[in-house]
Amino acid sequence: MFGVIDPGSASGIATNQVLHSEWAMPSSLKPGKETLRTQVGIIGGGPSGLLLSQILHRVGIETVVLERRSRAYVLGRIRAGVLEQGMVDLLQEAGVSGGMDRNGDPHEGIRIAYDGRRHRIDLKGLTGKTVMLYGQTELTRDLYEARDAMGGVILHEVENVAIHGISDDTPALTWCAGGESYRLECEFIIGCDGFHGVSRRSIPPEGLREYERVYPFGWLGVLSRTRPVNDELIYANHPRGFALCSMRSPALSRYYVQCSLDDRVKDWPDERFWGELKARLPEEVAARLETGPSIEKSIAPLRSFVVEPLRHGRLFLAGDAAHIVPPTGAKGLNLAASDIRYLSSALIAYYRHGSDAGLERYSEQALARVWKAERFSWWMTGLLHRFPETGEFGDRMQRAELDYLFSSTAAMTSLAENYVGLPY
Ligand code: FAD
Ligand code: PHB
Fold first, then answer.
1. Does the pTM of the predicted model rise above 0.70?
2. How would you class 26 by CB atoms within 10 Å of its CB: exposed for 0-12, middle for 13-18, buried for 19 or more?
3. Average pLDDT, whole number, for the chain?
4. How many other C-beta atoms can be found within 10 angstroms of the C-beta atom of residue 382?
């Protein structure tokens, strides 16, 4: 149980009136002297933090978002592309689906390439559901625009964010910006600051348990202004390593190849990347691959990670701050969305009805879904990548698993059900 805060009353200063600027504190504030207050302090201006702030603000709950990077930097990151129906619904409810409704591309199936052939997993036929292709970059831009339109408070380029008082019901955030120090008193603090953020690390080690698997390879991703090679995503298992053909629009492609953890982006000039991608695709696909200069190229290590529980006193963790999946199952952003769905409902119930039952249940409820997505992402990763350490036996196990998958409607349905997303 939490200590007493009247959930009906806004807490002191309406921060929206004093903190309007995206970039800086208004000069009327005296850093370090005037106490700022809000209801929910959110660390991290990625998809989790922005979506939570949007949902809460729409029902009148005040939030302040603290983001370490500039807006341009956040929008320069190319990441997820596949949204589950549950996330699509949540974005529509949150009033941030305009861009996705106009430009998103519903997909009814995916392909798995293996042994020179492509097998289709009919997502729609097997589950009745589809997934939406819409880039995280575009979604984040939509969220920023929606927050701006509502006068949401997002402070960028804040440094040294620190969390205080989460165990004794006096939660507060401090940070530095422009050489000045600030303090924000909150009723709750939500850590949406990704895997490398400060939130999880602020919990005493005895207050949490971590589970981790680090994979012995990474993904090299390339964005190019070329026509996608296929109308559906292709996941390829090849002796040279995994490859993925995805897209962002009819003129923008996103491709990935499994690479070594020692590789650096400079080791992969465009010609090498295209050559390697072609070598890992079935011949008829490689023959029609359109190549061109990369407009973004990055390497991501692959990791499975979960922390339990997702709450310590008045601090709650959501999204990548709490769990990481390897991107093979396209689940990371979608898990962030389901966390935010549970957490926003719990906070709304608290502020509307004074009920903390949802907050008490949040960790268990969110983790139940997280672990299932962890299992699926781990399984897809094992099915499709080359694992240096498993040898020929591992290769034969993969072959048996893939042969079984393509011969069994039950197995394909299981893949499809998880890929389109388990219910919230
Ligand atoms: P983040 O996006 O990491 O945002 C956290 C924010 O917090 C960042 O902006 C960061 O700058 C900020 N921050 C960090 N520390 C601090 C601090 N101390 N103070 C203030 N701010 C801080 N997921 C899918 O669902 N589908 C996909 O197809 C998919 N593909 C992917 C492909 C790749 C190559 C990668 C790398 C990931 C992919 N993901 C995918 C995962 C998805 O991108 C993440 O799960 C998602 O970004 C999580 O959102 P988040 O807001 O929780 O965290
Ligand atoms: C992407 O389009 O970036 C993407 C698609 C599917 C994945 C991972 C990433 O599994």
1. yes
2. exposed
3. 92
4. 17
